[in-house]
Amino acid sequence: MESGYTGGHGANPTYEQVKSGTTGHTEAVRITFDPAKISYKELVEIYWHQTDPTDAMGQFQDRGDNYRPVIFVKDEEQRRIAEASKHHLQESALFGDAKIVTQIEDAQPFYLAEDYHQDFYKKNPERYAAQEAGGRERFKQEHWGE
Which InterPro entries match (predicted)? Predict the structure, then answer.
């Protein structure tokens, strides 16, 4: 898994440029996986458990369009799986009447984030714990029982 930026305009954006909101990029992770070990469908399910799919303008304490909930797909099969999963989540009423606003978009060029963003949770355990305390853990408990 690699941290980076995608979905905007301009090549090789920096974190400072992305967080300024001027590039249109989304902060994202690129996951390389072996389908013999985990399916794309399972990865999408994991994604739902890590985000608030009803919040179009950020995730927990991270606010702004660069934190919007989006699934980037590489082909029609991934799109079909992601759309079906989103539909199932909406129909489940797990979030009450709230609309699932997570976008499903074609994958765009992916630019690696700076080194200090890679494996952030390992390099900065205290800061990572503080970020998790920003509402994510409570949200996961309330909605997923985790």
Answer: Met_Sox_Rdtase_MsrA_dom, Met_Sox_Rdtase_MsrA_sf
- For 51-135, where are the alpha helices, taking DSSP H only? 76-92, 120-123, 125-132
The token pair that represents 100 in the structure block = 């699932």
> Rounded to whole angstroms, how far apart are CA atoms 54 and 135?
14
Q: Which domains does the chain have, with CATH numbers?
A: 2-144 (3.30.1060.10)
Instruction: Kindly report the pTM of this predicted structure.
Output: 0.89
**Which long-range contacts does 57-61 make (Cβ < 8 Å, 24+ apart)?**
59/136, 60/131, 60/134, 60/135, 60/136, 60/139, 61/131, 61/134, 61/135
Rounded to whole angstroms, the Cα distance separating 49 from 90 reads: 14
Using CA atoms in the order 137, 71, 30, 65, what is the torsion angle rounded to 10 degrees?
-70
100-123: pLDDT as tens digits: 999 999 999 999 998 888 876 677
Dist. CA 2–CA 13, nearest whole Å: 15
Place of tokens 């489940």: 92
